[in-house]
Amino acid sequence: MVTAEATITFLSDRTTIDRCTATGGNMSTATGSDEQAQSYFPRWTLKTSGVIMPEERLSWGQTVVSGLQHCVAMSGSTIIAPLLMGFDPNVAVLFSGIGTLIFFVIVAGRVPSYLGSSFAFIAVVIAATGYAGHGANPNISVALGGIVGAGVLYGVIALVVMWSGVGWVERLLPPAVTGAVVAAIGLNLAPVAVKAVSANAFDTGIGLATVLIIGVVAVAAPGLWRRLPIILGAIGGYLLYLLFANGLGFGKPIDFAQLKAAPWIGLPNFTAPTFEANAIFLIAPVAIILVAENLGHIKAVGAMTGRSLDAYLGRALFADSLATIVAACGGGTGVTTYAENIGVMAATKVYSTLLFAFAAIVSILLGFSPKFGALILSIPGPVIGGLSIVLFGLIAAMAGRIWVENKVDFANPANLITAAVALTAGAGDLTLRFGAFTIGGIGTATFGAIILHQILTSPLASRAE
Fold it and tell me: Transmembrane segments in this chain: where (predicted)?
């Protein structure tokens, strides 16, 4: 079980809701001392040993080192997600830093979290843009318009939560529904991953070798390295491809011309959104998944710190929505709070929010290095395909974790039928058309699971039983 958790920790911030920590644990309701409550931001008192709470800080030297550790933890997924959608990774990293600073300010520096690229957008972006799977996405502006739409819907939900509380969200998205939607996303993406490694035998071999490297790192790597299976898998696959293609001539060589020509410092390639109704209608429902993710992560951080963060939940949702809108207005991916960084906090017992402000600044600086972006864009297609096989498969597998940890009863026909319909609709890409509007398999599975579960668990259904 420990091994399995180590393997899938890096995905839970994009595709799941950690209900076991969201509802468990005895914690105080304190959110800080009376003195802290008198100012908007904490006063971050110095503490160099033991558990470091959000309103405390390490020495500045330790803050720098620990902040860089959080940069490493978020980097793999924040870079890979835009590559899978054809976005510029430089821009995504830049806006992950900007988004984290937005979050930091709106929650008053009292909730430790890093915002990185959300994997929940991948399937709908690919569907909305017809992205071929490698290189720049020619229809990125259309996707950005849809992501802005998701951010707006997310913001509306956040404002309602701030006004009415979070209970209705938990009723609308119980574990049975959340797990079904997560599984449908992974299954819907599966054909994209397989296609990416199927061009020829060499591509298939590199893709599968990348998969193997990821698995070995996740299971057997020591210490912090075990938390970085995706980025280490990408590096390992890249080096293998370089050896057998550039060195031995078995495949198309990697072209380093763009990398050599890219300057070390320069402006990112910003892109403005365009708004098309079909893309907005397809992508906007991802907001529901982002709410579930953020809810679970805020609850998890509250459980780890031993204090309730419910008072900041509405702010956290609103901050994430605003960060997503800002990112999409400049060419970045939608963002979400990251479980990778929650895992680092759990391992180190350092919850100081200043670490995330520092990590955000480092990410912004990386966003202004075209050389860094060109290096990322040189990753070969089969390596991306191997990463996709693992990531998309783990998204689907995470549904099992949600159901098991929350003891979802599949002897209950309402849960069983909800899951069955959502899985089939997602895997088969069931598309519904209403005049000019089209809902792809992810949207059909999401809305279908929510509506069907509400109907099957309604008082009318109970009376009929």
Answer: 91-108, 114-133, 140-166, 172-194, 206-224, 230-249, 270-292, 312-338, 350-368, 374-398, 434-456
